[in-house]
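Study this chain:
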Amino acid sequence: MGTTIGTYKRFKPHILMVLAQIAYTFLYFITEASFNHGMNPHVYITYRQIVAGLAMLPFAYFLER
């Protein structure tokens, strides 16, 4: 069991890097689909900033108390 935790700590940067790349790929597909369906880029950026702000709100509230 200790080996599993050690392996996780050892590969944690690699795992996070892969997850970040998957998130960017997902965002790319959403962006392309939105633009192909006629969404204005300015509106898309506004929505993206609103979602990002709402996603960070709990972290800011609880970690910066």
